[in-house]
Write a structure and sequence with these properties.
Length: 449
């Protein structure tokens, strides 16, 4: 499979016409798509076509384990760059935690994506990408992953690459502007002999972002250091996110006789939803997606009006979804060949206020004994509102453990909540905070050291 950019090819090549028959001249390998991150023309990489499953194979999903599913879903995109044995080792090492489907109330299921090391769905994409990068890379020098973070992404990337051979990670985060829990998770690998370093930059997140951009633009530096990014638009993070939609349907088949189900994805940058739409295109029996947002609702507004109008983001309690100009919208348009009606057929928008989210976290906890973080609560709201009460069956994606957002969840409940093992362990470790000033010189020295 080759990878093309959304700006060069406006929609997927139809099944059967893909691949090795000459349509791929403009495409790049998975390795290049992952190492470059963004395409040189400013577009986003996408697979040239979506591998479509036969109905019989979809029906047999229920008999497969998570890693078997991951292997089957992702194999068409890694062949022929990785041999079968190496690729199998990648998925087995990356997806070494469960992703259970839990019934919260009759017909309403939560896909719990927060059982990985950083307790959020990002572990799936980041861990798989780290191992794919390490396996596909053939350079002599180690690959340096440089990332700026306002908190969460940096720790998912740091954990994902920790101890992965031939890679090293440099994370920049704004000193004093991440939560103590986030700082503990970011800095827990800062030891002399590890391959991960997280630096507290004396500045803002914008400074961290500017410094990474300067590094990527510095031709001289890039001759000396093999730099790559691991941000959320990278194909290597997006493709693995398809896997859990298949795994959700496999588990749902054991719990319900429904032929088709509705899935609700809490959305900010819309990578998570895009991966689900790839899954539907591959043949998953998902009747509809609900794209649930907080007040940052440019995609639901587009589905209502046909006008895509990005704007400055507004702050909400589901802050990882405070995105005013979602990057992956470009991939969604590519998937539907710019056909609004076709997108509306598959996706319905839903937007939710902080007040609704707070009330829902409280109500579901008291009525069902099920605790959700604000992002997962938006997904629950989107699903239940869409389905109404009668004969409903649907899955919502629970993207983060509630303990990651304890500062929001605890005041809503009026009591403290338990800290899960991996978080408690990060908090208990001695903290090695490495500080640097917000100058490019300092970052360059760090990268060359
Ligand atoms: C906990 C959580 N839920 C949902 C999302 C939204 O995912 P996406 O940006 O792919 O739409 C994010 C994004 O970072 C997140 O951190």
């Amino acid at each position: 499979m080759r990878f093309v950019t959304t700006r060069a090819v406006r929609q997927p090549v139809p099944a059967g016409a893909d691949g090795d028959e000459g349509l791929t001249a403009a495409g790049v390998s998975l390795r290049t798509a992952m190492l470059e991150g963004l395409a040189p023309d400013g577009g986003l990489y996408v697979p040239e076509s979506i591998d479509v499953w036969k109905p019989g194979e979809v029906a047999r999903l229920r008999n497969r384990t998570l890693t078997e599913i991951a292997y089957r879903v992702l194999r068409p995109y890694t062949r022929p760059e990785l041999d079968a044995t190496t690729f199998e080792a990648v998925v087995v090492a990356a997806l070494n935690f469960p992703i259970p489907l839990v019934e919260v109330e009759p017909g309403i299921f939560s896909l719990e994506l927060f059982h990985g090391p950083t307790l959020a769905f990002k572990d799936v994409g980041a861990r798989t990408m780290a191992r794919l990068m390490a396996s596909l890379d053939s350079g002599d020098q180690p690959l340096t992953v440089l990332a700026a973070t306002s908190g969460d992404t940096g720790s998912a990337v740091a954990h994902a690459f920790h101890a992965v051979p031939h890679t090293r990670v440099v994370v920049l985060y704004p000193e004093g502007r991440v939560s103590p829990t986030q700082e503990a998770q970011l800095t827990m690998f800062n030891s002399e002999d590890g391959n991960v370093r997280a630096y507290a930059v004396a500045g803002s997140f914008d400074d961290c972002h500017r410094l990474t951009k300067e590094a990527f633009a510095d031709v001289d530096l890039r001759k000396r250091v093999r730099l790559t990014s691991a941000n959320s638009v990278n194909m290597g993070r997006l493709l693995p996110q398809m896997v859990y939609y298949f795994h959700a349907l496999a588990q749902a088949a054991h719990k319900s006789a429904a032929q088709e189900i509705v899935v609700c994805t809490p959305s900010g940058n819309f990578g998570n939803l895009t991966a689900g739409l790839f899954g539907k295109r591959a043949g998953l029996p998902i009747a509809r997606f609900v794209a649930a947002t907080n007040a940052n609702d440019v995609v639901p507004a587009y589905l209502d009006t046909g006008v895509f109008a990005p704007r400055a983001s507004v702050q909400t309690i589901a802050n990882a979804m405070d995105v005013g100009n979602p990057s992956n919208f470009e991939r969604m348009q590519w998937l539907y060949g710019d056909d609004l009606e076709a997108m509306r057929h598959d996706v319905v928008g839903s937007r939710h206020s902080d007040a609704e989210v707070r009330a829902t976290i409280k109500r579901v906890y008291h009525e069902r004994g099920y605790l959700m973080d604000p992002h997962s609560a938006i997904a629950y709201l989107g699903l239940t509102r869409y389905l109404g009460q009668e004969g409903r069956i649907g899955v919502f994606l629970a993207t983060a453990h509630p303990a990651k957002f304890s500062e929001i969840v605890e005041p809503i409940l009026g009591h403290s909540i338990e800290t899960p093992g991996p978080l408690a362990e990060a908090l208990a470790r001695p903290r090695h905070v490495l500080k640097i000033n917000a100058s490019f010189d300092a970052v360059r020295r760090t990268l060359q050291s």
